[in-house]
Design goal:
The protein is mainly alpha-helical. Helix 6 packs across helix 7.
Length: 259
């Protein structure tokens, strides 16, 4: 796992790779034990037991371990989305500050005070500069910890302008316009995806279950099959899970744009 160290740094998890893997081993063990005990209780109540149970626990442990190892990736994605919501506004705020005659150092301080997510990264730059690091080195170190490609573009533009002596405000304006156009394209693509997703949701999660359950109840009256409360609860749980998956899919596909 060569990228684990950088992912931990980008996600804000203050663990070394070795410490994180140890914690993941323990967390997977606890989760496997809890789920395994629940499965044993259910199978005991149903008077069902199989030799496959000896294989379920190792497989469940491996699954839980790799599932918990994805926590840094999820945190990186969530941080990247939070940054994308603020990037255009924070960048334009920085441009206005620079065009008003404020120095880059003071402008970064103002950005760190006014924007919660992006402000944290600018605060890291300010703290490094206050401790004696040069502005270029401080920005370069922050770029390595940035989980957002858009923020990386902005910081790289500032860094290049500092090295070449170019006007920072003009170069930032160009890159922010490009990011804004990309976000508009993402919103339009999301709008095109939303219509078929909504239709699919109506058919699979609303119409089909309603008609299907009605037809199932009618058929059971002809073949004399009794439906107990457990079966109805299982059907309700399955429908709820399907709807939850649809909502999660729609929410995850929504672009991280603050309009």
């Amino acid at each position: 796992m060569p990228e684990l160290r950088s992912k931990l740094s980008q996600s804000g998890m203050r663990y070394s790779p070795q410490e994180f893997i140890k914690r993941t081993f323990l967390s997977a063990f606890y989760m496997t034990t809890g789920i395994g005990v629940l499965i044993l209780v259910i199978m005991t109540e149903l008077e069902i037991f199989s030799k496959m149970m000896y294989l379920i626990f190792p497989l469940l442990y491996v699954f839980m371990f790799y599932y918990m190892m994805k926590v840094p990736d999820v945190k990186v994605i969530m941080k990247g989305k939070s940054i994308s919501k603020e990037i255009v506004f924070a960048g334009r705020f920085l441009v206005i500050e620079l065009e008003s005659g404020v120095s880059l150092y003071d402008a970064m301080i103002n950005v760190s005070k006014n924007y919660e997510v992006i402000g944290g990264y600018f605060k890291e730059i300010i703290d490094r500069v206050s401790m004696g690091t040069s502005m270029e080195d401080a920005i370069n170190e922050t770029i390595e910890l940035t989980p957002s490609s858009n923020l990386t573009k902005v910081l790289w533009q500032i860094l290049n302008s500092l090295r070449t002596g170019a006007d920072i405000s003009k170069s930032l304006t160009n890159i922010l316009d490009q990011i804004a156009r990309e976000q508009i394209i993402e919103v339009k693509e999301y709008g095109r995806k939303l219509n078929p997703l909504a239709m699919f949701f109506m058919v699979i999660a609303v119409i089909l279950p309603s008609l299907g359950i009605t037809m199932f109840i009618v058929l059971t009256t002809f073949i004399s099959v009794n439906i107990d409360l457990t079966a109805l609860m299982a059907i309700a749980f399955g429908l709820g899970f399907i709807q939850f998956m649809f909502f999660s899919m729609i929410k995850s596909s929504r672009p991280s744009v603050e309009l």
